[in-house]
């Protein structure tokens, strides 16, 4: 009976036919399949409910299982009430609604052992001869569970298919709108996929390329290099990243290629995928910059000797003139001294400019540097200034960071020298150096002094080359110290700022990314 009523239908029509067959098999008025739609709220839905007297379905009944025989079936065990079911469940309005006298139901249990509903029959008169009820209804229940699980699998497959199509659409959109060349090859090196960028650059179509190897598409010397890299990836199972070269109509182009093996679910390599980006223009810029740096370095080398040699002679000859002319007096001696001082200032300025130019092009590789040692080493170079000013430098335990140790010493020495040099009259300079970590994952290093300070409207000016807030007669220097500091900090991916007020000192704050400290 079951196979006759359900063998040619699936889905909701299957359950309707099943309910009809169920009512006929038990000679009862009502048969239904109940699905729990909310276990927390104890809510179920009769879908469908077959009325064998009126010969109609009702698929819209939703009811609360509490205090009903259906609750016992779903939560506990098979339930048979052959008569007087309303007396056993006086708080079940659904029994009164349909004038139910007898009830029989068993739970629906899926292949994982989870209860998710029930299958039941009801009648408006007592049930008799119930001896074989349970094995019969169990057959119906098994059929019902099988169809429900089939529908669930179909639903998941459909969702997976939709998801797959969406993902394929996303990947296709990305692959065909990128400026990089994307391709996939088989173990034999035959092309399985190329994107639009590949087609446009090499003037081919996907149909022309599929199934071919690099030997079919490129000159032998280039193809063999591609094949060698691809085979290395597929044999080792490891990703490759490096430069590759390919011929174009306008000459040889340089690519940065990232290639990875393609593996199946068992981890077996069946091909490779590559993304190659044309960096020819970037390489040209890099080569031009390299030549420019080399020229600048050569100029710096010349400047360090040839430009300073005349200045040394000016200083030397001014001293010789004074030694050979003992009768010189007054303005003559003053002019010679001014000439010698100007030459010395020019020499200092050239040295600062040379150092500024070398911060980037001659920087040393970063390594772990203990900033406490940097402060101690700076003491030796500033010993004379410390003694002259009766200055004091205090510092807390500073961190170890990845940096260029020579440049870090120059940075600390310039800032410490400034704090000692720009002190208030009759007030010994005091400099405090300390650090802390910010909420932005940065390391802040503070240089806080009690010096003469300045108005904050000059903050931008003090970091510009040759800018001075005070005359040379008051304080010595070329005006390049803070410019060099900013250049060094910038090379370390940091920033420098200052807070100050006249006669209330200045605080220089250096920010480094937190990844710098060890």
Descriptive report:
The strands form 4 sheets. Strands 1, 2, 3, 4, 5, 6 and 7 form a 7-stranded antiparallel beta sheet that branches. A 5-stranded antiparallel beta sheet has the order 9-8-12-11-10, with helices on both faces. α2 (12-26) runs antiparallel to α6 (133-175) and α13 (371-381) packs across α15. The two termini are 79 Å apart. The protein has 16 helices and 19 strands. It has helices at residues 2-6, 12-26, 69-75, 85-88, 93-97, 133-175, 196-202, 206-209, 214-217, 220-236, 280-324, 331-361, 371-381, 383-389, 405-421, 481-491; strands spanning 30-38, 43-51, 56-58, 61-64, 79-81, 102-109, 115-123, 181-186, 191-194, 240-248, 251-263, 269-278, 367-370, 392-395, 400-403, 430-437, 442-449, 495-500, 506-513. A hairpin with a 4-residue loop joins β1 (30-38) and β2 (43-51). With 518 residues, it is α+β, with helices and mostly antiparallel strands. The model is unreliable at 1-6 (pLDDT under 50).
* Assembly context of the chains: single chain
Structural class: alpha+beta
What composes the largest sheet?
7 strands, antiparallel
The level of helicity is 40-55%
Gyration radius, in Å: 44 Å
Q: How many angstroms does the end-to-end distance come to? A: 79 Å
Low-confidence stretches: 1-6
Overall average pLDDT: 82
How many β-strand stretches?
Answer: 19
What form results from the Cα inertia axes? elongated
Strand content: 15-25%
Summed up, the helix count is 16
